[in-house]
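Progress against Task 2.4 (sequence-to-structure conversion) is shown through the following example record, which the project officer requested during the mid-term review.
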Amino acid sequence: MKHTLLLSMVVAAQTAFAQTTADKVNVLVGSSGDHGQLSPAASYPFGLMSIAPQTYPHLHMGYENKARTFLGFTHNRVEGVGCQGSGGNILITPFTGTPESSVLTKTTEKAFPGYYGASFTNGISASFVVNGNGGIENYAFPAAKPKGFTIDLSHTLANRFVAEEHTIGNNSISGWIDARTTCNAGTYRVYYYMVFDQPAEITAAGDHKLAVALVNKLNAAQLRIAFSSVDIAHAKGNILEGTSISYVQKSKADWSRELNKITVKGNPEEEKILYSFLYRTMQSPFLISEKDGSYRGTDGSLQQSSTPMYNGWAIWDNYRTQLPLLALMDHDRYQSIINSLVGLYKFGKKDYATQKEPSNTVRTEHAIVVLLDAHRKGFTVDFKSILDSLTAEVDKLDWKTPDKALESSYDTWALSQILAITGDLTGSERYKAKAAQWKQYWDKDFKDLTKNDIDRVGARGMYQGTIWQYRWLVPFDLKGLVAQAGGEEAYLQQLNEFFNKDYYNHANETDIQAPIMYNFTSEPWRSQDLVRKYAADTVVQYYFNDNSRGIDPFVGVIYQNKPDTYVRTMDDDSGAMSAWYVFAASGLMPACVGWPVYYLNVPLFDQVTLGSNNKPFTIQTKNNSRTNRYIQSVTLNGKPLMRNWLTHAEIAKGGTLVIVAGAQPNKSWGTTDQWISELK
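Structure tokens generated for the chain above:
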């Protein structure tokens, strides 16, 4: 028992220590059914390691909250993504007696940020703590019977296993594993080192499988394991020293430090929801550089950096929500993330993944928009070193289907802006003219709303969306969109129809910006209503991610503090949907990625404070309640504010915004000095 942290000890410790922000997080949110594809894994902010159960049956995350049968525990994952999940390397299964006769049937479990533990009917209990890229695994066994582990080095959640090499040492195993990235698009490699705290006989047990017998037949065992994207030596260097209980408290403190970059005052139950979803926005991208600055590029090359480097992208999914949220909360970390995105263009960038990724990853479309957005928010972006690569990427964009035409026009517009920033005005005008071709594609496929396929998912070769949903995807030229729709009156009629007939799909990202698209019209109060509605009210959703418009709609509140939250089939997509909620709850929504502007809505809290620097920005809400969802008036640093938007610079320099809320819309507020994007 010398090194063992049992489940009961952790539960007791939880009550003994002071409550922290991490204690407000429910890590079981989104972990049941097809409702978010989230896991209760012991994880660390932006860390490679994520230890969670593999249950039967399993969902995308390898875990089903209602399942009682466990197959073991795996060590990494990409949270909430499609293609049946991603990661799930190194499946470790404890047994007593024989592996075949030792079934793990759950009796209890306990999980919070940085920790997971469970006990089983056969007398085995297991607990895990993760800090950085290292973890400590503690197992307790019943007396008398033989004890040990099976280890499957070829296990994945859904991706194809590629190859592995391992070395058995003195009570240790080390090596590397290659597996396919999310959706089997590329290949990533993880280096690992693990060591048992006692003599262990480790033998081969079939293809890429090992058997571990505990020689001393003790009733407890501890395994320390660590990952690296660089090599085995660095993985070994990431092995945690010290006691499990010390790391339980350290990880909680580290999680609380990150979560406290947004602090709120209000309904305690609403606070739990906020922090449970904010927690999900801090799982990726993954920190891939080591303390000595070494990391591997996406071409497999060994590199050196004086600042942290990241990998593991889902940019198509989260470029409008999670990445802007990180930019708002943590300037230094986001600068490193931007440096890492620039590095993709230097060492190898694919829309999905290369064959030598330093971590699991999903996709990178719209990275150019993210870089432009970062520049305009005051981050340093080395455009000149990658300008040829940015241009080459835009020149190869796909315009073949209606949705691709609009998405490609967005990236093309971003390049036109970057070229102007770098002084190439001629090139800027050329790509601006190309971006303006969105109007031709829009008139061809999105203008006519009388055709019988406009509410059909995948119509005309589109991806995961309908004509109704994709027609709003011109964020860089909303002024032009209003004109193409026939002017503001026609635009409002169409947008009203879209929401009144529940054509909107909050189960996916295709139209995630649509609720804020009244903000530049004569009726901005409608956006205030819709943002509150989809964040906290009962809604009707007909669309699901099995590419269908169902006859049996989802009716309920999307964001809830329970395992089966979200619309069914709705993936969180690496924090994309969680970040939307955090923005809505905080009173700010990004107006257009590429411009440093946020639209205002009534927060869910009496007070929200943003930022990790010495210049906090506080949003106070007077008359706050669930029914008071409309802005009556606003002051910024004591002065009346009639516009319904703020700039990133105004937030970054700190201050106080006071929003007075009411149950009825103030139809004159926010209708002057409006911000609207346009092609210029």
